Amino acid sequence: MTNRFVTFFAATSLAILPLSAQLTVGGYGEATYSYNFYSDAWNRYKNPANFKDATHSRVDLPHVVIYLGYDFGHGWSVQSEIEFEHGGVEAAVEMEDDEGGEYETEIERGGEVALEQFWIQKSFCPQFNIRAGHIIVPVGSTNNAHEPNRFFGVFRPEGDATIIPCTWHQTGINLWGQAGAWKYQAIVVPGLDSDRFGRDNWVGSASGSPYEFKIANSIAGVARVDWTGVKGLRLGLSGYIGNTFTNTLAQPNENWEDVKGTLAIGAFDFTYSGGGFLARGGAIYGHLSDADRITAFNKKMRSDSPSPKTNVASEAISVGVEAGYNIFKPMKIDRQQLYVFARYDYYDSMLSTTGGLLKYDWCGRSRIAAGINYYPIKPIVLKGEYSIGLMRKPYNNEPAISVGIAYVGFFKK
Fold first, then answer.
1. What backbone torsions phi and psi does residue 110 show, to the nearest 5 degrees?
2. Looking at CB atoms within 10 Å, which of 16, 30, 108, 118 has the fewest?
């Protein structure tokens, strides 16, 4: 029994190993450091002149994921992913001597622990499979490829992670399959919650739930198609559509009965690999109807509600592209890789507003980054980059130097 436990623990902590013909174990993790040549004060955009020469630095564990999967046979399989974001949450009960010996719960570390995936799948043939449970919503490039070895930057692409949920995971049903160079997915999930929409992240905070359940008064549809008909090239189209306004615990009265809050998102992404070159990128555009009415409703909510209660844009956009070259390729060093890369992003969580809502210019920016990715072995990557967020006047640009180390280990039969 002891030997089996040691084997399981080592596989979970280090990489994916086949413990049996049916069981797969694995995951990925990231550790990062960044020195930022700008302020992180909450009001730095209200009074930019006061924060012109400020700096700050951070260390973080953005994502640490443990993966478990099992193949029951006869086409039935299950997969789960538990994610610890920013180191997870540490809580402890302490007795306070200076408060009469009262017991108090102390939060010693911020972060999140989330069940990112849990689904059961029935596979009939390569062209048709059914997956039900808590699944990834593959809209955009980052949600489709969110592991740290599938983007060059130290952190996930900033634009995608700003305007839509990332990683986007919800409970639903997914029909998927592959025929030749084509792969498709058709998904039904609960609609996003409009009371969680806001200025800074548009709809990015609305896939999760602050409650012990996910409101599902409205249903949304998701579709994705990928094509790999040319060697080294993949092209993908994805989209989302659904009503959002009724997904709230607050009960709108008859004055709001015409508000739908229809959210439509369209995305294109691609990857290309060949001759030592690797390029990736994509674009996301989203439109929200009744954005001004949703803003008004959210601002009337109780002060202790989870809504940010800020202006909500009717349109948002994210565009990003990165390219790198493995300089070890011409040296014929096969076991290691050293990519030199550059990346450009443009995003705006308040691209357009309706109903006279104030549009905040600091919500839109360009970002340029350049750096290296070094793979001493395939599952391990060391990253370093210099980046700068180019802000509109009068806001201060946001340069940063970041480094990180990550691993990804997945066993696939």
1. -80, 170
2. 108
Q: Output the CA–CA distances (angstroms, integers) from residue 335 to 11, 113, 327, 377, 378, in the order listed.
A: 22, 35, 13, 6, 8
Q: Where are the beta strands (DSSP E) in 158-232?
A: 169-179, 182-190, 219-227
Query: String of b and e for 142-177 (b: at least 16 CB within 10 Å)?
Result: bbbbbbbbebbbbbbbbbbbbbbbbbbbbbbebebb
How far apart, in whole angstroms, are the C-alpha atoms of residue 362 and residue 339? 32
Pairing mode, strands 182-190 and 56-60 = unpaired
End-to-end CA distance of the chain: 26
- Tell me the pLDDT tens digit for each residue of 175-189: 999 999 999 999 999
Structure tokens at 348: 């705006």
3-state helix, strand, coil in the chain (%, to 5): 15, 50, 35
Residue 101 is which amino acid?
A: G
Q: pTM higher than 0.70, yes or no?
A: yes
Q: Among 178, 190, 188, 189, which Cα is nearest to 123's?
A: 178
